[in-house]
Amino acid sequence: MSEPILQLKQVQKTFADTNVLNGIDLSIAQGEFITLLGASGCGKTTTLRIIAGLEQPDSGRVLLGGNDVTDLPPEKRNVNTVFQNYALFPHMTVSENIAYGLKLKKKSKAEIRQTVQEMLSLVQLEGYQDRRPSELSGGQKQRLAIARALAVKPQILLLDEPLGALDLQLRRQMQFELKRLQKQLGITFIYITHDQEEALNMSDRIAVMRQGRFEQIGTPNEVYDSPKTDYVARFVGEANILRGTVCKVGDPLLLQTDAGICAVACSGCGLKQGDTACIAVRSEQVQFSPYREGEQGLRATITEKNFAGGMLRILLTFADGQTVVASRHGIDLPAQVGEEMLVHWQPEHAILVQQSEEADR
Amino acid sequence: MNTRKKKQGYWLTLLPLYLFTIVFVGAPLVYVVVLSFLQRAETWGVTGQFTLQNYRQIFQPVYLQTFVDSLKLAFLSTALITLIGYPFGYFMAKLSPKGKKRMTLALMIPFWTNSLIRLYGWIIIFRANGPLDQLLIALRIVDQPLKLLYTYPAVVVGMVYALLQFMIFAVYSSAEKMDWSLVEAARDLGASPITAFFTVTLKQTLPGLLSGIILTFIPSMGLFFIADILGGNKVVLVGSLIQDQLVKAHNTPFAAALAVVLMLMTTLLIALYRKIAGGKELEGLV
Predict the structure, then answer these.
(1) Number of domains present in the structure of chain B
(2) 3-class SS at B162?
(3) pLDDT value at B277 more than 70
(4) What domain range includes position B169?
(5) Chain A interface includes B200 (CB < 8 A)
(6) Residue A264: CB partners within 8 Å, gap ≥ 6?
(7) B187 contacts in A (CB within 8 Å)?
(8) Which of A193, A248, A272, B133 has the CA that lies 20 to 30 A from B107?
(9) Domain assignment present for B79
């Protein structure tokens, strides 16, 4: 296996007594599209700024292509950033913005002109070269920011929530565009977002961050289908979390929760009688049927129904007050709010997860 | 139907503004220009006789020299104010919100005191064997008192002291509004801190810097009392010349002509500067 293009080793950063990064490790391969996914304040932007050199870690090393760049200033790193607010130079035209980095690299005039042309066509901004950033639309600014960063041919492109300011439709379109660009250029992308859909759509790998640590690093499928912790299960896709004690080992094993007994697939999960366990069930995997005495399942009442984003979401409340969310395609559901239901799922759809520990911050 | 009424209301609201401008700016200006073309009366005031004599008189070497000296001093003070005020305003913008408030207050407080009183403070400091001389001698930087009072350097210090705040606040207001992520973007694209400063920061704070220059250069052409108080009679500027002609020599038309030329010069300089600055808005100039 070739050398990773970027390695973070035990990177730690504290701001005003708050541990923003708790010694993180990360290894990224050449040409990879990796997304740092997390809620705001989880340390993803700080990670990006440390990679860019805009921030210094308190301890730990940053290796770029095998070379230690921890102490190098941003201008000496072959890594470029697409800033969240774009940070386009307002006093320069579109072309001048793109040419800025090239001029600093002392490229010849002809070469600069050629690269600027290439970049303009790459991001489809031909004809706009003499405009000022203030005369561009949000999507165009976004594309200019990408062109400016790509013009200097970075080893890694860092993107800090680049689509955050765009409307939904444009965002979907740009997701596709970015992915296409990345494939075409073969450059490593490190992408930051708090939008799980964006992360699942675009990434080769997703690193889910929480409180300055990585909760899980894996392919979108791994993160979605086998979340390691309850936090990941809830953050990526929507999952219901239930806790309980193992009351019968086997496959499936039975878990005693406050809401009742449920079956959980366990092939070599190693849980013993009396162990506590935590399971995650995707809302689309939650089944329910009208309550009938003696049938298997967890007894619950429908407390809410709402229709959002093409999905019908049904909120079911157990006797102890815990809730689960079930989702269905379509708008119609015969069951009404207030009706009693039996909630169940296939044992293999109950995923055993670890409980996220509270990091000391 | 309503447009005419609206238009009337519009003019009515602006009327006080026009009246004020005409009475207190326009009329005096016309008065001064007219005066400058009239003959001096025997004792005080002017006669109705038209003449160009007042303007001819300005071209006498002694008066021309005064203009040259004034320009030199204005350029020198403005240059020094820029050198001190720009970094000051720049770093002030980087302070914490609390620090900014404190610094603003610290800069404002001295200006609640009468400027003449503050100038007398400088007289005490600059006096032969005064606090400054004593300090410098105690520190063994000099072994003879400098006797700075009534010298050119004293006037320059006075000018810088009186006008520095305008530059600081003009630059500060520009730098405060600046998007510092632009500097990060420049660094990210390969600019050293110095290159980033000249290609981004300076360009972004240019409006503030330019209005700071105007706000200091123009007054420094006319501030006569600083030269009078700190320079004694050794430093004669256009401002003091006008005052002397008016108050001591009672040569009203000549004073008027000097004022008109001074005004034309500053107007010319502003026009020139606006051309260089590319018609940018003057920040801090209302």
Answers:
(1) 1
(2) helix
(3) no
(4) 61-277
(5) yes
(6) A252, A253, A254, A255, A277, A279, A347, A350, A352
(7) 53-54, 73-75
(8) B133
(9) yes
- What CATH number is attached to the domain comprising B221? 1.10.3720.10
Residues of A in contact with B179 (CB under 8 A): 85, 87
Chain A interface with B: residues with Cβ < 8 Å: 52-54, 73-75, 79-81, 83, 85, 87-91, 100-101, 104-105, 148-149, 152
Domains and CATH numbers, chain A: 6-230 (3.40.50.300), 240-353 (2.40.50.140)
Q: Find the distance separating the first CA and the last CA of chain B, reported in whole Å.
A: 36
- Other C-beta atoms closer than 10 Å to the C-beta of A156 total 23
Domain-embedded: residue B190:
yes
More confident residue, B168 or A170: B168
Which of B179, B181, B190 faces A75 most closely, judged by CB atoms? Answer: B190
Does ipTM come in above 0.85?
A: no
Please give the share of chain B, as a percent, with pLDDT higher than 90. Answer: 45
At residue A360, the pLDDT reads 42
Does any domain span residue B27?
no
E strand spans, A283-332: 287-290, 298-308, 311-318, 323-329
CA distances from A105 to A30, A100, A101, A152, A159 (A): 23, 9, 6, 8, 22
Residue B5 within any structural domain of the chain: no
Using a CB-CB cut-off of 8 Å, the residues of chain B touching A156 are: none
